Amino acid sequence: MDIRTVKKMETKAVKSSRSDFFRMGVALFFMVVVLWYSFGAYGHVPNSAFLAIGAMFGAYMALNIGANDVANNVGPAVGSKALTLGGAILIAAIFEASGALIAGGDVVSTIKKGIIDPMLFADSAEFIWAMTAALLAGGLWLNLATAIGAPVSTTHSIVGGVMGAGIAAAGFSIVKWGTMGKIAASWVISPVLGGLIAALFLFSIKRSIVYKEGRLDAAKKMVPLYVAIMAWAFATYLMLKGVKHLIKVDFMTASGIGLVIAVAVFFLVRPMIVKASNKLSDMRSDVNTLFTIPLIFAAALLSFAHGANDVANAIGPLAAIADAVQNNIISAKAPIPLWVMLVGAIGISLGLALYGPRLIKTVGSEITELDQIRAFSIAMAAAITVIVASQLGLPVSSTHIAVGGVFGVGFLREYLATTKEEEKIRQEKANLAEEKKVLRALSAERDDLLALPNKGQTDYERIAELYRLIDEEEERIKMEKKMIKKAENIKYVKRDAIKKIIAAWIITVPAAAVLAASIFYMIKGFML
């Protein structure tokens, strides 16, 4: 290793360290500002110290939600090159904050998913300690998951934190185990449902466009229809989930409004697609570009819905602490002061900008290779899975749905490629059998010649030629075996990534619960 290489490595390390310190500095500054504001605004209230600490932990939780969870909304768009990393972060930050502030609601459930009974706490002080422990535990687990590159459910993280702190405060009877069973079921339901729907959409697009001889002509007819289906799905999804705090509608109403919007989008988009297609070739890469704009809209809408829904993971316990400190009561629902909502909205956007790129790359490119069509299928799966699950009463996780969608398109690619290669494998195995027959015949002829007692010059020449032919046949056989092995081991989904992510999913709730219980006992020991 020469001196130039060493200097380059040192320069790179210094730049990386500076970048890490800058991100950490900005995150700490944000938490300190939140701490300072809460002390300044509520310093006169008893237990204001706990409100200030809880606010800081809420800010920490919001930062980690942005760093980990938001990647699921924009990761596929970045992986498919529909969006640059910087563009994705900007769009997601704007729409996450907008979703949180516009549609996050003015009242939030203090106990996410109703997994424990808040009335079983001995007093408001223990309730405050438990919510503080839950926020810190959820944030710590998300921080660890982000560091190892594992996208996990922020909802499950805060659920585990609340459950663990609740058990530490009031025993196992405080937990509603039926509700916890449904949450555990979502570990399987969410990725499987998301994966199946994403795979079905991708297969449909392949059959109706990609596999056609005239791809571009097929795209002119089908892309407007797929965009209209996307418009229906996202309009319905946003009304059921994204703006539920502003307007409450049932599924039929939301679906009907979504259908009207879909029809309008179809007639609006069709001439635009035709015009864009006239400038493209019949290559798949060109057809892919027709899905770029819809994919960007999908990423923005998913971010808006996520901000509206998942901001409660950061501010729910914080709102509970604020309500308990100011009113000295324990409530199942609490009003959200504007400053608490801002902590959640700004924290999520800031966490995404500072630490989101790692998980965006994981979801977008480190599980399977994505293009615009595959990413579009994943976005569709994210919206439709939530709609289907909500109507069936099934618990689902948006994180697990999105990552399950990535798995789904990857495994479909494997299946289709394997099916396509099976005929090649059969032919190669037949060729291999013929090569072996030839090899055996040549070897037998050589052995017969070698057995002659009096070999002439012609015999020696033939033996040398047979050795050469045998070497060639053996080399061909080796090549055939390599080709068969390669064809039989097509892998479009990285198995190591699957193992790491599934392991993180399984241990999220128990890990956050153990952390929260430990933190609760430390707080209680310190206070008493």
Secondary-structure blueprint:
Blueprint: H1 3-42, H2 48-68, H3 71-79, H4 85-103, E1 107-109, H5 124-147, H6 154-170, H7 177-210, H8 215-242, H9 251-277, H10 284-288, H11 292-327, E2 333-335, H12 338-366, H13 372-392, H14 398-450, H15 457-488, H16 495-527
Antiparallel strand pairs: 1-2
Task: Tell me about this structure.
The structure is a single chain. The model has no long low-confidence stretch (mean pLDDT 83). The chain has helices at residues 3-42, 48-68, 71-79, 85-103, 124-147, 154-170, 177-210, 215-242, 251-277, 284-288, 292-327, 338-366, 372-392, 398-450, 457-488, 495-527; strands at 107-109, 333-335. With 528 residues, it is mainly alpha-helical. Helix content is 81%, strand content 1%. It is elongated and about 115 Å long. It has 2 domains: 16-418 and 491-527, no CATH class; 419-488. The protein contains 16 helices and 2 strands. Helix 2 packs parallel to helix 5 and helix 8 (215-242) runs antiparallel to helix 9. It has a two-stranded antiparallel sheet.
Structural class: mainly alpha
**Overall morphology:** elongated
Mean pLDDT: 83
End-to-end CA span: 59 Å
Q: Kindly state the percentage of residues in helix.
A: over 70%
Number of helices: 16
- How many discrete domains? 2
Strand order of the largest sheet: 1-2
Characterize the main sheet.
2 strands, antiparallel
- Rg calculated over all Cα atoms: 30 Å
Share in β-strands: under 5%
H/E element order: HHHHEHHHHHHHEHHHHH
